[in-house]
Design a protein that fits this description.
By secondary structure, the chain is mostly helical. The chain has 4 helices and no strands.
């Protein structure tokens, strides 16, 4: 009989099908927060040009964060860039860009060069 092998009861495995099973368990909402240990207070922001003097990067010795930082500290990041607000002003688009970005995103984009390098290192060391 023609079409016997293509009955509705046969299933084909689709390419890229995910394995089925229980979803990974999420931590309980009342789980204690992880505390990151620091060596000392460091040097306040803007008072040192040495990246590792940053308050955010003074992890206690022999911690996971300290070792992760030592692995990634020499990774080159993209060059620091900011919005050239003078150029945007000459184009007459300041209001439009501010509205597009919103106050929180604009504040995040207005960081200075040392923060541009500190924040990714701190994030990837503690993540």
């Amino acid at each position: 009989m023609a079409g016997e092998g293509s009955s509705a009861g046969t299933k084909r495995k689709r390419r890229g099908a995910r394995a089925q099973g229980a979803a990974q368990e999420q931590p309980a909402a009342d789980a204690p927060l992880r505390v990151v240990a620091y060596r000392d207070e460091g040097i306040p922001h803007g008072q040192s040009m040495v990246l590792l003097d940053s308050l955010l990067l003074r992890f206690a010795y022999d911690t996971d964060e300290y070792y992760r930082l030592n692995v990634i500290k020499d990774v080159r990041l993209l060059e620091f860039r900011r919005i050239d607000w003078k150029l945007v002003g000459r184009l007459g688009q300041v209001d439009r860009l501010e509205q597009l970005l919103g106050p929180k995103f604009r504040m995040a984009l207005d960081c200075d060069a040392p923060q541009y390098y500190e924040l990714p290192l701190e994030f990837h060391s503690t993540f």
